[in-house]
Amino acid sequence: MTILTGAGALGLLAGLPWLVWQGPYMIDAKYLDRKSLAEGSAALVTGLRTAVVAGVAALGAGIALLYTARTYRLTRRGQITERFTKALERLGSDQQYVRIGGILGLEQIVRDAPEQAATDAARVLGHFIRDRAPMAASARPAFVHDDESQTPALPDLPDELAADVQAALTALTRAESRTHVDPREVLDLHALHLAGAALNQADLTDANLRQADLDWANLSEAALPQANMHEAGLVRTNLHAAILREVNLDKAKLSGANLSKADLSGANLAGASVNEVNLTAATLFRADLTAAILSGANLSEANLSEATLARADLYRARLDEANLTRVKLTDADLTEALLTGVDLTGADLTGAKLTRADLTGADLTGAKLSRADLTGADLTGVKGLSQPLPQARTNEASTVPPEH
Prior knowledge:
Blueprint (H helix, E strand, L loop, with lengths): L1 H26 L13 H51 L4 H17 L2 H18 L30 H11 L231
Helix pairs in contact: 1-2, 2-3, 3-4, 3-5, 4-5
């Protein structure tokens, strides 16, 4: 490329005088009369020569601009390489504050460098987290005891994240930090102990959080669509208003978590432990909660339309004013559940256990109640309930609205 550029410049320098002097006679030869140049054609020659010179000057300016742009790119690349090298040196320091300085340097590269450099910096930060954060308890091998001391071979897990690990997590999960990073570069945090992490409003789209321990973490308003959180620990985690669309939470531990106003549309929570969780006003449209443990959970005003809760444990769960249209609750346990004012239009409650459940004012239009157990249930003011209840079990304690 350099040889070709030099040859072109040399050719231009050699040909420019000839072009200025003889160009007019070649370009407009039919309009020029050499015998009458002194009588006026000379002005035409001079004008053409001026135009040729201006054109060549513009071409030269364009070449200079391209050269300047290339020089700028090379200079910028060198600066980024220098910044990258310095940041790497700081990451290896024994002093935590120096490591944090290196993390901040890499964060700047992630945010404003070209795609490849930003991706490389993000990859380094990800490896730093994996190297510094301990392995989650659920992913640890069984304890190996020393024959003499009988003490665990693995150290206890910390109650909070180290400051440098938190800084790296923050740097990688800011929304603006993913702008230049290759979308194929997935954030891999699987099987790490990240309890108590501050990740509010973090961007964890497509992140691998399988078996990660995020107990007591703050993930409020975080974006986690399509993330893999299989068997993740989320006990007492704050996920208020988080975006969890199509996330994989199967067998996750969410006991006591705050998921109020969270969007879990299409999420997979099959076999998840969600007891005493706060799902107030959450969206669970078409979510899969098959065999999920939701005992004591608060699902007031939640949207569970077309969700699957077959064999789910909803003992004493709160579902008042919830949208349960076309929901699948076959063989689910709703013992003593609060279902006042709930919309169960077209719901499948086949074989469901609703003993002592409060269904006051609920809408059961088109609901399937075959083999449902309504022993002791309160059905006062229920809408759309056919009489007698087809194949549903009741007793004298069941409060059934009178026939009309």
